[in-house]
Amino acid sequence: xxxxxxxxxxxxxxxxxxxxxxxxxxxxxxxxxxxxxxxxxxxxxxxxxxxxxxxxxxxxxxxxxxxxxxxxxxxxxxxxxxxxxxxxxxxxxxxxxxxxxxxxxxxxxxxxxxxxxxxxxxxxxxxxxxxxxxxxxxxxxxxxxxxxxx
Length: 150
Prior knowledge:
The protein has 150 residues and is α+β, with helices and mostly antiparallel strands.
């Protein structure tokens, strides 16, 4: 499925045309860390909802996904926007599409890159007071501001 957006971007919710190396570059530049093309392919293809935005030159400028069980919980994650397109509304459109897709779920959750919480608050998200997490690299997650000290 593809749709045109008000910003002239081409939107798609299928992985059929994704260049995973291009996706790896998007995540590095966004910046959302160094995620390999193989890793991104695995997580996007295993996500119920996903969206990709391309500019007129067919360059991938944004991507995002949601893990969802179809009824109870949808977890929006990995929303990445090229720096050249940040602040243009494409991130808002991306999250709005994922929220819309997830609308039948009892709860929609996400965790934000530190410092971006205000962006998600404008889209209706509130801080979870009881959220807990185990990260594979605990020390790195604490250093990035994703986890508090024990």
